[in-house]
């Protein structure tokens, strides 16, 4: 009886493997869009749990590659061990921040290192990809990654609990969910790009079209616009709205 | 050519379905251990993102049932909508806390409502199960659920960043990873149960053996011991150590 069960188990496994091979052949992976998530990180007591949360979330997303850049002279064992245990495809980099403590901007050198890695490791035009900057102290609903996966040049959506407000982000015209007409933002709403780092993603091809586009340490609270203006957007109004015409602001 | 691809796709699907049916038959679901996670929750601006984080984590755990109990007179749309979108198997309950603001304990009525639901909705002895109390403001590594899944009566493991310390929890004897000899705890280390709510889980059968076991509003900072002593443990030394003899304290 036990050996009969074993034979059935082997058959079941064979059938599954055969089926999966068929599906794999048919799914044409060259069409898949990879989401490259760039995450600067630095040591503090909550670093590990924050990274665990991100790993859990990203584990639920298909075709994702996580680029984690430490703010440190050398890569630490903490992050290296964490990434080796996290099942998400990842790249581990490090880059130091400027020593000058007058800088009130964090993460620029790390995000630039992430973009540089993409420029050096992706073959331009061979792989459809999206770049997203996800800081390690935010919460992400896994569904947002499917919202950004089909963008043409760049997309935006509202985010919750930011800038002292329960939400911030794009607003579309009534009856025109594909056209952004304005933004709700607590901080400097008249900026050309009044959006948070977590509120936009861009086509990876733009990194090659604009090979010098980068973050800096000059434009306080305007790093989003600093990058987006360098990759060809005149204002955030040109971004493609997501989350059902920017309407799916979470009830929070 | 297109129709040939379609035929192949149908075959692939059929093979997968057949394989899965075999696996389902062979896996004997009666042996599966369900982890019942009891989570009290209350409204504040970060409630929704905290719940999203938990949903993401629990999505990675097999055989889990999430009992979410709101501290409210009625169930709110926020939590109801959230649970309807979260793919984790769940039950939505509500229970109010005492009005008296002198109580410095939170969550007891909600955790008791969760246990009551289990006593009323599980057929005693028919389903192997584990009960775990997971607050909505903590971070959980999904691997901890497999650590607790095979417990006999109750198990414990170290947790990070609690009670003002980078970690707290059980310590085993050198060379004896299955025997707890002490605990590291910042707050009242001489308590019989010097462990955090997130540091233990018990066999669901204990809820039937001890049908009156419950949390209260009297024993400040000692709710863990209040419950564990009522379900038959004399001290936390009797719990089964997990996480490789309590040694896997995360590097944080």
UniProtKB/TrEMBL annotation, chains A, B:
GO terms for cellular component: Golgi membrane. CDD domains: GlcAT-I. Keywords: Glycoprotein, Golgi apparatus, Manganese, Membrane, Metal-binding, Signal-anchor, Transferase, Transmembrane, Transmembrane helix. Its cofactor is Mn(2+). Its EC number is 2.4.1.135. The keyword Zinc-finger does not apply. GO terms for biological process: carbohydrate metabolic process; chondroitin sulfate proteoglycan biosynthetic process. Its main location: Golgi. It comes from the Eukaryota. Pathway: Protein modification; protein glycosylation. Mn(2+) binds at residue 137. InterPro entries: Glyco_trans_43, Nucleotide-diphossugar_trans. It is a single-pass type II membrane protein. The record marks 168 as: Interaction with galactose moiety of substrate glycoprotein. The active site is at residue 224. It is found in: Golgi apparatus membrane; Membrane. PANTHER family: GALACTOSYLGALACTOSYLXYLOSYLPROTEIN 3-BETA-GLUCURONOSYLTRANSFERASE 3, GALACTOSYLGALACTOSYLXYLOSYLPROTEIN 3-BETA-GLUCURONOSYLTRANSFERASE BETA-1,3-GLUCURONYLTRANSFERASE. This is Galactosylgalactosylxylosylprotein 3-beta-glucuronosyltransferase. It comes from Hydatigena taeniaeformis (Feline tapeworm).
């Amino acid at each position: 009886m036990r050996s009969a069960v074993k034979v059935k188990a082997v058959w079941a496994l064979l059938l599954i493997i055969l089926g999966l091979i068929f599906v794999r052949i048919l799914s044409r992976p060259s069409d898949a869009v990879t989401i490259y998530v760039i995450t600067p990180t630095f040591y503090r007591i909550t670093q590990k749990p924050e990274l665990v949360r991100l790993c859990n979330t990203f584990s639920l997303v298909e075709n994702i590659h996580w680029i984690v850049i430490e703010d440190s002279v050398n890569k630490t064992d903490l992050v290296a061990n964490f990434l080796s245990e996290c099942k998400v495809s990842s790249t581990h980099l490090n880059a130091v921040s400027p020593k000058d403590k007058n800088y009130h901007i964090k993460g620029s050198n790390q995000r630039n290192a992430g973009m540089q890695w993409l420029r050096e490791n992706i073959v331009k035009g061979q792989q459809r990809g999206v770049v997203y900057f996800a800081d390690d102290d935010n919460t992400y609903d896994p569904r947002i990654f499917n919202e950004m996966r089909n963008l043409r040049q760049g997309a935006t959506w509202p985010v919750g609990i930011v800038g002292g407000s329960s939400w911030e982000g794009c607003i579309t015209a009534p009856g025109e969910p594909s056209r952004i007409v304005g933004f709700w933002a607590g901080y400097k709403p008249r900026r050309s790009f009044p959006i948070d780092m977590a509120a936009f993603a861009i086509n990876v091809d733009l990194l090659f079209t604009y090979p010098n586009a980068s973050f800096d340490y000059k434009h306080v609270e305007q790093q989003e616009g600093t990058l987006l203006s360098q990759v060809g957007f005149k204002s955030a109004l040109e971004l493609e709205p997501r989350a059902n015409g920017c309407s799916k602001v979470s009830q929070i």
